Amino acid sequence: MRIPVSWLAEFVDVPAGTTIDEVHAALVSVGLEEEGSHHFDIDGPVVVGEVLEFGEEPQTNGKTIRWCSVRVAAPGLAAADGGADVRGIVCGAGNFFVGDKVVVTLPGAVLPGNFAIAARKTYGHVSDGMIASARELGLGDEHDGILRLVTLGLDPAVGADALALLGLTDAAVEVNVTPDRGYAFSIRGIAREYAHATGAAFRDPALALPLGLDAGEPADGVTVSIDDRAPIRGRVGATVFVTRVVRQVDPTVPTPAWMVSRLKLAGIRSISIVVDVTNYVMLELGQPLHGYDLDALQGGIVVRRAQPGETLKTLDAQMRTLDTEDLVIADDSGAIGLAGVMGGFSTEISGETTAVLIEAANFDPVTIARTARRHKLPSEASKRFERGVDPQVAVAAAARAVQLLEELAGGRADGSGSGHHEHDALAPIFLPDRYISELVGVDYTDEEVTSSLIEIGAWLEHASNGLLVSPPSWRPDLTHKSTLAEEVARIVGYSRIPSVIPTAPPGRGFTREQQLRRLAAETLAASGSTEVLAYPFVSAASNATFGSPDDTVAPAVELANPLDAEAPLLRTTLLPGLIDVARRNLSRGLTDLSLYEIGAVFQPVPDASYGVGEVPPGATLPTAETLADLDASIPPQPWHVAMLLLGNAVDKQPGQAAVPFGVADALDAVRLLASALDVPLTVRQGSHTALHPGRTAEVLVPVGTGVDVVSVGYVGELLPALAAELDLPRVVAVAELDLSALIELAARSVQATPLAGYPAATQDVSLVVPASVAAGDVLDAIAAGAGVLLESIHLVDDYRGAGIDVGQKSLTFALRFRATDRTLTAAEASEARIAGAAEAGRRFGAVPRD
Q1: Which residue ranges does the record assign to the FDX-ACB domain (predicted)?
Q2: Was 214 annotated as part of a binding site?
Q3: CATH of 2-40+171-203, one of 3.30.450.40, 3.30.56.10, 3.40.50.1370, 1.10.287.3510
Q4: Binding site annotation covers 477?
């Protein structure tokens, strides 16, 4: 919300000389977030000039310029820049006449965009200044001609300060308005907050208006009825609907300069006098208004839900197909406006409109929010309605619009209109004695509590052991005693709240699962990887490619209203997001990447239905049964961890060649993670539709106390063809593990292994086996046969070539034996090695290599 300071000062006392920073500081002190400041970026002498004469001079480039004589100061007096009172100025516009009052920027002035004005030679003349257009002054987009002050209804003295005349010396502060404080989307609301912060006197603009009739006679048969036969969650779409009629409006009257400049500072473009008035009142009071061309209405007005298949051409000239939940304003011809969002084209205020019907209504916030999002049509009105508008201000807003149209556009209120009010008062809140002091930790006096609540507009009634607090109509966010505590804390001052770190109750903190997830993240980060967070929404093709280790496609949950139509599914794997991150970084020159992500995936059970649960209203506490139904309506969401490595693990440097990442690095990262979680794992040859068939491993962990294992993920390299299709290097190593399963299997406590007290005996064994036999299976067989003396075993060589038959391979393993109670003899170690080789021979026909 942008707030012009001069406008703010109309409703609250802002001391002369108050800076933008001081206004911001005051608003921040009561909980509003500073966003920035806005001004017209004009400096130097800018004055009112009078065109005395001009001559038109055609140029060789086909353009015609005017060499003008312009008076910029009273006769005989020096101009604002100290120069002559009459200047020669070159102007390319042709829309002005002799005698016109115009805006002249004299040498030394600086216009928006850091455009400095100086006397300069152009088109054969020395132009001693410039006659400005509205766009050059920052007042609007009009640039076809210079700004004639008569079009603004102004006839100032020559030489007068044009900046002050046009309101260009004003500035605006901007604050962020949170969804719960819709009342601050108005000058009225911000003025009240400034008064809270500074103690300055506040003058409510809604109380200073001639309200006129509350519910008069229908205007020329224009009746208003509320026909909401399909309320959402029991809430009627419109609870207030006020109309007023103004006739004899002159639509050609220019909007006053002060209004144009205030609208511009507030971020709204000036359009026409009627539209500008409705926007001005909306900013001033926070009540969105809409003006209808009364002569274009056909019959009475009905507020209703849209009919199936109904269409509406909105003010932006777009034809829209309406939803049956949309609330519309209709007449006998059909829908003429999307309630609270945008008006219809058929009743638009035009240059021919002389009779205006003003509408000030209060619509259901949820209905308006859904309509604006459904049609991708956010507007200044919808932003206010979806946050909640004061239902009591509609009559005042309509009266204010009538007042301005009478004063500025020659209109005449004919006393007709209508008024519909069925808005319930906000429920009172019981506030126990001492509750706020105990909650906030500050010893507030009873006077501080009551005065703060009265200051925000609440009504107080003493009750047994406390107060009964009735919130003001503009504060629908006050629904609980804790919200009242927040109001007292900010009105008295946040500085009263001590900065004390609370002591956590015993037994609190991270759960075991949270601790292990954090340990997993810290382990990978410490190994040199970078954590990233990717979007959980993917395409069907991505889920099909990466979502299943084999050639099946895992089902996926489809979003009813996806942010991106090309990514409508929830992810079943983390790899698509990691690949998108890698591609983005590669495109920006980062060629060596080690990335990981820890996040939830969504893995529906086949033939199950999801997303069918009824979402309870936010205003009521859901029951246990409701929560159970909601849980049953969502798919399992296990946590996964995924890694991606590409480029070089070690850069090229003097004396050492570059070392590229490969599948071995991904496997090392997986083993490191398993070690940190104390989960024993093994790997075996695996397959995946997206991975290289010879460089893919399935990751297994034991379950129970037997020899059963379960797969928890895979490690491998992307298929080179797939990597090329994705614009990635040929070698991209990836891994993905079910982190929830690992955490479930993680040891509850880590048992430290005692240091060995006796020396180890090391031996190697080389066995020839069929090439189709996995080295890991041979390793397991040797370990099983070698017995308890075997301390460690690992593969050191896989040879295929001369001396080995075709279809065979030679595997060499390094074995280390150790006893805990004695020094092993060479014979004992050899016996265990031979037993291991024999077991491999029984299982796979392995024979010792000669």
Answers
A1: 756-849
A2: no
A3: 3.30.56.10
A4: yes
